[in-house]
């Protein structure tokens, strides 16, 4: 997940003591473990070095990532790749960006949804986000990996559930001075950046901006349908925890 601004905020001590989001941290742990054991981390010598390592990375991403052309050519064989791809990342920056975003917005969203519902929501929306990207790039032979679609869904749900939560942003055109905005300002701005970037994308898949947009829309739509009669968004909203750069 990429962008030109960052978000950070700290919970109040009382809110922090009440944190109960084990699935958020488990998902983060799984992503980190899979990355550490894979060829992209550089932490294991089992994949060799130089050209051998490069070939191992390509094969690894193709095996566990989403390859749109393969997905639609042999759907029975490739049907689970949009799930496995959620736990595979292409590099340290890719991993840390997604995990920090999940840390910032995932814990509060999980607390609101509950553990089981949040987990199904995360995996389901992530699957559909990657599938949507694959449909739009059906002829592509490039591998798509990463949790961006699922994390974007968490952002969308967070926007509906906690629109007044204060988010500290660092904006390049303000010389990276920290300014605080409510989530209803920051997250739509992030979505607009993804939309603009997706419109400029050429030459086949690169950063999966479309998957970000699909995930964000699915997350917001799910939260609206699920919580529109019970949402606590009118209550005082604590700030999300963590710090990240999208």
Describe the protein in words:
The protein is an alpha+beta fold and 246 residues long. The protein is built from 11 helices and 4 strands, in the order E-H-H-H-H-H-H-H-H-H-E-E-H-H-E. A hairpin with a 7-residue loop joins strand 2 and strand 3. It is globular and about 55 Å long. The relative contact order is 0.19.
Put the structure in a nutshell.
This protein is of the alpha+beta class and 246 residues long. It has helices at 13-17, 22-37, 51-64, 68-73, 75-78, 81-84, 92-113, 115-136, 148-161, 183-200, 209-227, and strands spanning 6-8, 166-170, 178-182, 243-244. Residues 1-18, 170-177, 201-206 and 233-246 have low confidence and may be disordered.
Supply Rg: 18 Å
Q: Give the CA-based shape.
A: globular
Overall pLDDT metric: 77
| Element-level helix/strand string | EHHHHHHHHHEEHHE
Count helical runs: 11
Biggest sheet, strands in spatial order?
Answer: 3-2-1-4
Helix-strand category: alpha+beta
The percentage of residues in β strands lies in 5-15%
Low-confidence stretches: 1-18, 170-177, 201-206, 233-246
Helix % is 55-70%
Q: Give the end-to-end Cα distance, rounded to a whole number of Å.
A: 5 Å
* DSSP summary, beta strand count: 4
User: What about the largest sheet?
Assistant: 4 strands, antiparallel
Give the topology, please.
Blueprint (H helix, E strand, L loop, with lengths): L5 E3 L4 H5 L4 H16 L13 H14 L3 H6 L1 H4 L2 H4 L7 H22 L1 H22 L11 H14 L4 E5 L7 E5 H18 L8 H19 L15 E2 L2
Antiparallel strand pairs: 1-2, 1-4, 2-3
């Amino acid at each position: 997940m990429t962008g030109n601004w960052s978000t950070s905020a700290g919970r109040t001590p009382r809110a922090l003591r009440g944190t109960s989001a084990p699935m958020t941290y488990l998902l983060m742990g799984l992503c980190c473990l899979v990355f550490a054991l894979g060829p992209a981390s550089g932490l294991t010598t089992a994949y060799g070095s130089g050209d051998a390592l490069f070939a191992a990375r390509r094969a690894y991403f193709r095996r566990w990532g989403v390859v749109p052309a393969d997905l639609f050519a042999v759907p029975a064989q490739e049907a689970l790749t949009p799930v496995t791809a959620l736990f595979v990342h292409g590099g340290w920056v890719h991993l840390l960006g997604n995990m920090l975003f999940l840390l910032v917005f995932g814990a509060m969203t999980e607390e609101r949804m509950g553990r089981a519902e949040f987990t199904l929501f995360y995996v389901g929306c992530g699957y559909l986000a990657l599938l949507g990207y694959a449909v739009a790039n059906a002829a592509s032979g490039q591998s798509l990996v990463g949790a961006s679609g699922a994390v974007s869904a968490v952002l969308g749900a967070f926007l509906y559930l906690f629109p007044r939560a204060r988010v500290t942003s660092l904006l390049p055109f303000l010389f990276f001075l920290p300014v605080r905005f409510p989530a209803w300002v920051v997250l739509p701005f992030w979505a607009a950046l993804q939309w603009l970037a997706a419109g400029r994308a050429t030459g086949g898949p690169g950063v999966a901006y479309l998957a970000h947009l699909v995930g964000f829309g699915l997350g917001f739509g799910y939260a609206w349908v699920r919580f529109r009669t019970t949402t606590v968004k009118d209550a005082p909203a604590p700030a999300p925890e963590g710090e990240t750069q999208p």
